[in-house]
Amino acid sequence: MLTLLPIVLACTSPKVGDDTGVPADTAGDTAADTASRDSASGDTAETGDTAADLPDPFIDRVVDYVPGAAAGFGQDRFPDIVYGAPDSPGGGGASVDVLTLGQEGALVVAFDDIALVDGPGADLLVFENPFTGWYETAYVAASEDGVTWHEWPCDPTDAEHLFPGCAGVAIVYAGEANGVDPTDPATAGGDAFDLADLGLASARYVRVRDSGANEYAGSSGGFDLDAMAVVNGAAF
Q1: CB–CB of 11/141 below 8 Å?
Q2: Which helix (H) or strand (E) segment is 63 a member of?
């Protein structure tokens, strides 16, 4: 039976950034496959519940990772490093439990236990490790099937307005040990994204891609992904 809920959770790259996205055979079961199975059983995904009702609001599976130049940090713990809750030490401190994407590097992930659904306000939170005065931006896109992508507008050159629409901007307050709810946009921090802005009712895949407008040096250049969390979701 499908239980619907609210919970929390990128442009183009050689493998994951164009409108065709990742081939379905590399993405596992698509949202369409799941929808077909649910339809046969009489279950649908039309409404949402709160994140607290969901079994796991975090990334379930990495579909593809294409590191760019100056990537490397976190790869020794990949893919586990992007699973689970964000890891801020509290008080807006920056986590080091992150995966560096590198220049225009991209990561595609899937939510298998739940689907993002369009509910009140933000539907997804994306957590980087910014601190005031230092931001590393990325584009974020969502897909229902892992093939057709819809990208939130992002301006990685507009520092005056804190890079509107981009991930990697909002300070992170939620952490596994500090008791801050990582699925509450009001307290968790992180960058919030609303499916309504894309005209989508639901999504099972999220793509994040470094903007190419960051600093790149060594093995920790560009956008660093800590975690994603579903705010509004539907459990299957």
Answers
A1: yes
A2: strand 61-66
pTM value surpassing 0.85: no
Cα separation, 145 vs 174, whole angstroms: 29
CA dist 77 and 99 (Å) reads 9
> For residue 158, what are the β-bridge partners?
none
Residues 6+ apart with CB under 8 A from 215: 136, 221, 222
With CA atoms as reference, report the closest residue to 23 among 205, 209, 211.
205
As averages over each run of 10 residues, the pLDDT of the chain (236 residues) reads 38 34 36 36 42 76 98 97 93 91 98 95 97 95 98 97 97 90 96 98 98 96 97 89
Distance CA 10, CA 64 (A): 13
User: What would the two tokens of residue 73 be?
Assistant: 């940090």
DSSP state of 110: E
CA–CA dist 203, 205 (Å, integer):
6
Rounded distance, CA 196 to CA 143, Å? 13
